[in-house]
UniProtKB/TrEMBL annotation:
InterPro entries named among the record's database cross-references: GAF-like_dom_sf (IPR029016), HrcA (IPR002571), HrcA_C (IPR021153), WH-like_DNA-bd_sf (IPR036388), WH_DNA-bd_sf (IPR036390)
Residue span, Heat-inducible transcription repressor HrcA C-terminal domain: 111-333
Function: Negative regulator of class I heat shock genes (grpE-dnaK-dnaJ and groELS operons). Prevents heat-shock induction of these operons.
One GO BP annotation of this record: negative regulation of DNA-templated transcription
PANTHER family attached to this UniProt entry: HEAT-INDUCIBLE TRANSCRIPTION REPRESSOR HRCA
Keyword Transcription regulation in record: yes
Gene3D superfamilies referenced in this protein's UniProt entry, alphabetically: 3.30.450.40, Winged helix-like DNA-binding domain superfamily/Winged helix DNA-binding domain (1.10.10.10)
Keywords from the UniProt entry: Repressor, Stress response, Transcription, Transcription regulation
UniProt similarity note: Belongs to the HrcA family.
Alphabetized Pfam families for the sequence: HrcA
Single GO term (MF): DNA binding
Name this protein carries in UniProt: Heat-inducible transcription repressor HrcA
Amino acid sequence: MTPTTPMTELNDRARDVFRLVVESYLGTGLPVASRTLSKMAALSLSPASIRNVMQDLEELGLLAAPHTSAGRMPTETGLRLFVDGMMQAALPSAEERRAIEAGLAEAGPIEEALSAATAALSGLSACAGIVMVPRREPVLRQFGFVPLNDRQALAVLVGQDGSVENRVLDLPPGVSPSMLNEAANFMSARFAGMTLRQAGDHLAQEMENERSALDGAARDLVERGIAIWSHDADDRPVLIVRGQAHLIDDGTAADLERVRQLLEQLEGKQEISRLLESALAGSATKIFIGSENKLFSLSGSSVIAAPYRGADGRVVGVVGVIGPTRLNYARVIPMVDFTAQTLSRLMR
């Protein structure tokens, strides 16, 4: 049986046993024995009958026995079949929705809202929360240079959205405070309302046509200021990860190597970003289970990711969680969906 085989190919007895094994495993993280299932009111089967059904499911590749005498647990193929064909999703509770919305209600740069939403999602799901930050160029409002010493100054950029960012700038020899003021005033007057890319193009055109009113030293300052901000924008992190500590709990004591591998993978944010970019093309939540993606094949982790949209309705980023394959899909998937919808409303 393949992950795309429909549930209709299982008879009613096999479906009932399979569903109870998966639900029990996702709740406890432990293999499920036939005797345990026989005590459930939902089944009126003897332990022997249940063992036979579980053996059939194992032969189909849906269940596996970690040890000869142990119970059964779902394989990644089984989890995929359960998520696609049997799972009954539960909408986020009012308390969960309020927790997600609370972080987004605070005023400030969009990155802070995205970080708050990711932290809330991480806490509610007990997974690591992830969000891809939309690549955007700030629209400029004002520049400033604050001297630190003879060789360095603080370059201050104020965006139209009220965001303020600072970078340390190395100064050419002989720069005076008056030159810093001249360069800052020139940049604020000429580049307000532009993006960094537009400001750089505008400056290059002025220099080429020799229409700049600046002398050599001040012109050098302006070029350095634009360059440091443009370089910073290109290198800006595109991924926020929060809540890695949730991946280490009492249930991971016997599986520390898997957790170590997962934490190492979370450090490679560019690799995760490439994985999440596959969710940018769709309009629905994507679920990657274990080895379905190469990045997390060693740690056996699952990724649930949903796209969110910008003011023009286009997909601009992805929000989601990373956790063990035995996470509560029925609860977490709708939670990720709601977070993506909330972010979409915020971006309008």
